[in-house]
Amino acid sequence: MRILLDTNLLVRAAITPKGSARAILRLIEKSEGHVLIISDYLLTEVADVLRRDRIRARWPLTDEEVRSYCTLLARIGEVVSAQPLPPIIEDPKDQAIIEAAAAGAAAVICRAASRTPYPHVVKNLTLNSIPASAH
Questions:
Q1: What is the pLDDT of residue 120?
Q2: Is the pLDDT confidence value at 122 over 90?
């Protein structure tokens, strides 16, 4: 299964090694049947978030640790070149996630539960052949 983890989950996987986001990432990495879909945008955004002062105040990752983590993501994932799609969602950052999912033919976009898409987003994802649910 081709899986895209959003920025929030990728950041959580970096800062909480024993958390559920890291467990998901490990399962994808170890499974021959799963592929992590990642884009340059996602890698850049993850690095930017991990370097924010408020994140570093609580989880002090060095620049080298951030680089190593992003290198790991690129190594275990399939880096895709996202192409612009007609606007599906208002937030350009979320639009970039959807474009990466479409470019990588993701079967699933995993997002934090608090970030469940609105029904109109689910409809637009489905129209672009990306299975989605607002549950």
A1: 59
A2: no
